[in-house]
Amino acid sequence: MDIVRGNMGWIEVIVGPMFSGKSEELIRRLRRAEIARQRVQIFKPMIDQRYAKNGIVSHSGLEIRSDLVHTALEVLDKVEARTEVVGIDEAQFLGEGLVEACTRLADMGKRVIVTGLDTDYLGRPFEPIPRLLAVAEEITKLLAICVRCGNPAVHTQRLVASEDLIVVGATGMYEARCRRCFEPQLAHERVEAEKTAAEKAKAAAG
Ligand SMILES: [Zn+2]
Question: Is 44 exposed, middle or buried (0-12, 13-18, 19+ CB in 10 A)?
Answer without folding.
Answer: buried
